[in-house]
Amino acid sequence: MTGLRYVYAVCRPFRSALQAQLTGVAGAPPKQLTHHGLVAVVGTVPEADFTEAALRAHLEDLDWLTATARAHQQVIDALTAVTTPLPLRLATVFRDDSGVRTMMEAREEDFRRVLDRLEGQVEWGVKVYVETDAAESAEAAEPGRPEAKAESGRDYLRRRRMQTRAREDVWQHATAFAGRLHEKLSAFAEDSRLHAPQSAALSGASGQNVLNAAYLVPRADSEEFVELVDREKDDAPGIRVELTGPWAAYSFTGEFGEDSEVER
């Protein structure tokens, strides 16, 4: 193979075949590179796009980053369907196969330790949002107030205090619900991680994010986990619960993939 080696993940050997038409970054199909009983899943990418200088330039190109991230995630998703991958960070690149093998040998003990811990596990993401219209409805819920009537200064201040109190009540309810939900899901899961709430401007999601958590769950118990989340949703009027997964265990790979929250 010519070009640089793009490494998606490290895993143990697996028998099931990946989809025949699967392609990854730069349109190249992923290949398996075996070393000391571990497998690096790699693709070939053009040097012109993946040198250090080229990658710095691409950081300013949102379209390129989005396409690359989606192609990367496509390969990880395919691996997650057939094995337990340890996903590496976006744009982990080496000069050639020898460079990949050198990396695998240097990190072999760490790879095996993390893969042992993740074996048979998947990650589920749960986000809780306060619906914007729920907060606005709470502000407007003062009964018996004539909308068209001119207000005195005292009435205006009273109304504003009531709106503020109603909005705070919505937030308190949402944060209390999120805390109870996280406690229940953490008790079910093998492990959990709390991430910083996502900015609505960046995520494009409606509402305000009050819980952004990841849960490590045995693959065999995933259906029960989903049912648990669904049951809790029913008790949350005015609050939106978003479940995503199952994913490769990005949030539980430590230094290998901790900044790889891609399309999840």
From TrEMBL:
A cellular component annotation (GO) from this entry: gas vesicle
Single GO biological process annotation from the record: gas vesicle organization
Start and end residues of each stretch annotated as Disordered: 135-154
Listed Basic and acidic residues bias regions: 142-154
Originating organism: Streptomyces ferrugineus
InterPro entries attached to this UniProt entry: GvpL/GvpF
Alphabetical UniProt keywords: Gas vesicle
Name the UniProt record assigns to this protein: GvpL/GvpF family gas vesicle protein
